[in-house]
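Exercise 7. Predict the structure of PD-(D/E)XK nuclease family protein from Vitreoscilla stercoraria.
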Amino acid sequence: MNQITIRASSLGSLFDCPASWYAKHIERIQMPRSPRSLIGNAVHHAAAAYDVSRMNKSGLTINEAAGAAVDYIKQYTTEVAWEGLTQKDVESKSIELHQTYCAKIAPNYDFVAVEVKCEPITIKVGNLAITLTGEMDRIYQSFDGGMGGMDLKTGQNAVSKDGEVATAEHIPQMGVYTVLAEEYYGIELTEPFAIAGLSTTNGQAGIGLIHHAKHLLLGNPETGEYGLLHHAGKIIESGNFYGNPRSMICNKQYCPVFNRCKFRGK
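Solution. The predicted structure, encoded as tokens:
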């Protein structure tokens, strides 16, 4: 039986552009970080420090936690292809989004776990053994005791002008997180998976909800209903890693094979 390891965060990009996914995750072609991806990482770092402080009641302020974002950026400046944004821009935007998250999103949730590291799980899909890995951002507990997951997403299109947060593209990733967390903690995540969106364009924050992420990922083998993981396995088994020139990541900043991609018609 063939075996492959897939990180939760990469699964959605397999459906978006298999050619780019193959280049990054099978051929292992590395790309320099973009300034905007550094913003996302820095916000995650600072927000986690703040939420952990809320959980253990250590009293870290929002501004104190923001220092974790600046420290993170300084640590990785040499890995970034500085185009369009300067280091100062990245620090300023990261602090702004961190403060927005802490003021508008964090207070509405009671977190029971932050930066959840789970053990890998292997699932058989046809003749392929897929090992799923990943680190989940948050597990929250609702007022009635139910638990659900949360993931932070930053980006230019993370929140629309109307305040809506796109969720469909994140379903595969959140499905994997749900499976991993339920197995690792021996719990059931019955609440919707919350996507906390933070716009790098206008600074807006919002929440989008994904219902039944686990079911959408796995389907129902008993009834023959296929989930997203089945379709991912079919793409991988076929070896048909076609390109998608209409993908939002069809750009030299995000795709390692952009310049030689035959699917662009160049």
